[in-house]
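Known limitations

Structure tokens in this collection are predictions and should be treated as such. Users comparing against experimental data should check residue numbering before alignment. To illustrate the layout, the record for Alpha/beta hydrolase is reproduced below. The input appears on top and the generated tokens appear beneath it.
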Amino acid sequence: MSSTESPSVPAASVLPRVAPVRVGEGERMRSVRLPGVTLTVRSRPPAREGLEPALFVHGLGGSSQNWSLLMAALDGTVDSEAVDLPGFGDSPPPDDGDYSVTGHARAVIRHLDAAGRGPVHLLGNSLGGAVSTRVAAVRPDLVRTLTLVSPALPELRVQRSAVPTALLGVPGVAALFNRFTREWTAEQRVRGVTALCYGDPTTVTPEAFGYAVEELERRLRLPYFWDAMTRSARGIVDAYTLGGQQGLWRQAERVLAPTLLVYGGRDQLVGFRMAAKAARSFRDSRLLSLPDAGHVAMMEYPELVARAFRELLAESAVPGATDAEN
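Generated tokens:
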């Protein structure tokens, strides 16, 4: 295993769209029908020909829009796509109702196989980090490099602030929570999520906050919203308990791709202390520590994460990396 640490930085068929979604400047959206699942994919037109493909995978309760800032920061570096996992964003539920980490990984693999874009630079956050780890372990042919932002890998001692999220996976808890919070407005819910996920919630712009409220209001009206949330949360908990070759840490050790690990010092969902274990487990890893970041460093510090990603490409001697700086 080789592990280098970056200096800590201070503070396939296309379907018509069926639901509104916020599309950032220069972004495009499409729906892709695959066996057993339909995925919504967000993309940016490549800045030039010949850029290598990248795929971004969001976390629990998120969507492809979580990656818009980082995708824009990587214009000229990679040809970017971000996927809405089944049941999230604009993707409908999977046909088989499988929201496990393996189920989500299967959806990502089906998309990559159908698109023929692999091997890709695969980037995942939180649940998406666990999903991406599994993809890289079982299908190394599809992954050129791996970047994990606060990946949801098993912790023996879960942070107290992460317990409510884990409890969503317990049967009946989501319904109970929904009943007790029925009077909460979407704005109150978004404010709570922002406080949980950001190192400094005051950095969220009014425009971004307003969009998050609109999006949550839309998603709360979907009949499968809580089912997707609870089953995906249960999938994370179940993945934590798996042993043997299916264990996520064991699969991390099997990853061959050069790996960038990004951990936030103010992360309330994934313990910062797990960064050292992750750096030891991924055989070819480098670590970016962001002491002031929370759980979504790619949204709080997109330029810093982009710089570390470009360094990953350069250190890994990935073709085209020398032309990555904008």
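For this record: The chain is about 40% helix and 15% strand. The domain at 2-323 is CATH 3.40.50.1820 (Rossmann fold). Please report discrepancies through the issue tracker.
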